[in-house]
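Running log. JK asked me to keep both predictions on one page so they can be read side by side. First protein, sequence followed by its tokens:
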Amino acid sequence: MELRHLRYFCALAEHQGFSRAARALHVSQSAISEQIADLEHEIGVPLLLRSGHKIRLTSHGEIFLAEARKTLAAATVATDMARRSLRGEVGTLRIGFFNGGTGPFFIRLMQDFRKRHPGVRLSLVEMIPPMQEKALIDGELDVGFTRPLDAPYRQFLSVETVSLDPLMAVLPKDHPLAHSPVDLRALASERYVLVARETSSALFDKIIAVCTRTGFSPQIVTTASVWSSVVLLVQAGEGISILPSNIQRSGVNDLAFCPLTQREASIELVAAWHPERENAIQLAFLQLMRELRPQLAADTGPKPRAVR
């Protein structure tokens, strides 16, 4: 049975005659007659009572007509949804993010995308950067907001810089250097608490690189898997830390977040996706991100760039 059989049958019932149905469908009368005969033969139920040029539905035909109309309506909806999906109007977009790596830009982007594309469901998944990279490769995420990618993933994923997040020294408020920009060399003898490399290799490596270029290797007394634990350890007196500037929006009041004077003391927030899995919804999302970025991203470095 094909949808064509159902269309012919519904047209025949609506126009109450083969000739009128044929004219409405722009086909021959014999074509409709053959299709209806095939339909009755296939389902094994008489659908029509024929009397000369007049036809009427059997009781079985009346029941079949109601269900046939539902089927055709469902097929129309399915076709429309498929076309809307192709245009990026419906579907699901799975977005990865990590705590401490997003801020007002991310929130505004989600809000504006929902307004522009109300038929698209945003599925937001919190993942640390290494997990995002694997999820993008495995097709579990469509877009990830993460740190610069580790080497094994750079050849497979497309990456676009969203913003540059300045690094800041996280100090107790009674520290002699608190409340003003700090030259990292003045902190060379401090004990450091850092985010573990297993959690964010890009951040860990960036901090070590900046310290090394400044002329010292930081004395790392402990690491923690998330920035909130790093802050807690600094509050407890374990040492000082270096964290991205958006952490200071977290409402920590008893610590000082001091900008570093080193020009290279910043880290990228990037959007990453798999180029072989691009679709209309994802491309619409990325386009909106590019539109909003000049207004909202705190990018103090070079213009964002796209690489593959």
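And the second, directly underneath as requested:
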Amino acid sequence: MTITHIVSALPGANSHRPSVALAGRMLPPGDIHMGLAQGIAPALRDFGIDPAPLIRMAGLRPSLMDDMAGTIPLSVLGRLLTLGVARTNCPHFGLLVGKHASPLSLGMIGRLMLHSETIGDALRAFVSALWVQGRGIAPSLSIENEIVLFSCSVSPSYVESADQIADGSIALAMNVLRSLCGRNWSPVEVLLPRSRPADLAPYCCHFRAPVRFNQEIAGIVLAARDLTLPIAGADPVMKAVLEEKVVRIPKGHGAVFAADIRRLLRARLTRNRCSAEEIAELLAIHRRTLSRRLKGDGAGYRAIVNEVRFEIARQMLKDTDLPLTQIAAALGYSEASAFTRAFRRWSGQVPTAWRAQALKAAAQASKHIGVGRNRMCGET
């Protein structure tokens, strides 16, 4: 069944649609809004832990975490979450971080969502603004047979603690939706691209809906009728004021444009087999224009598709228990053998060997962080 995308746009892709920027500028690739990261300090304090030492270990000044308009590299956020998991010994630390977020954590776009007319309007604003506010996250909104999927993909997917970032992003999105729909609202189900945890209670408690693990993408499934729900307390005058503050971002060129294409593919590749013609149509440009603009980054469309497939493959191999046949199918391969050959070209290893090596490295890194944590505890 074909999925009709309600929103799937890049900054400046459609000249009539404004994009939101922080401080009137486009974020560098890999940077995201501080919103999710601001939940790290309160989540640590819930465990009785001073967040300042961990924030410094990740290479940041603790005062930066209070900047509502600030940004943070996705790699640094991943490092912070890795340290948080080790320090708290809590495997669902990212979920707890996301639980501390609210629409106001998203700054201006969060306020615009609160004053949107309907849930659908708010989600469309969220998705289109996140393409600019969160260049390390690839959001998407799609509908099929009266079912809506809102998804957030970490890009690049092999960043440290990608599973924790996905947990936190979906927990944040759930808080936003409940702020708009009402505290008693619950989704149809929640999808998470991570292996099934030993303790399901924290996930069931927060989402209050079936949670499916080992998925290709992180997402919230809701009924299409929910998109028409009005938002209580929305002020059309305030909405107009906020929309006036939205800054129009020029189209990206060269490396920026290519990075945005990668993010767009990251959000769609496991749900659709995206041809260059389909991507060009989404961007309202000609296929030849797409190729010409990608030349600024010295890359061809097919090469970018393979790079994104490699990213997704690594994430699935490392963070989920999915068998190779399912990973191959999600990436558009008819047989696992074809996927294995492609993965060997990309990495020099077969997928099973790469997975074993990645899991061993993750275990060693966790042990190393644990030693550092014990030393830090002994000093305090």
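Observation for JK regarding the second prediction: The chain has a mean pLDDT of 81.
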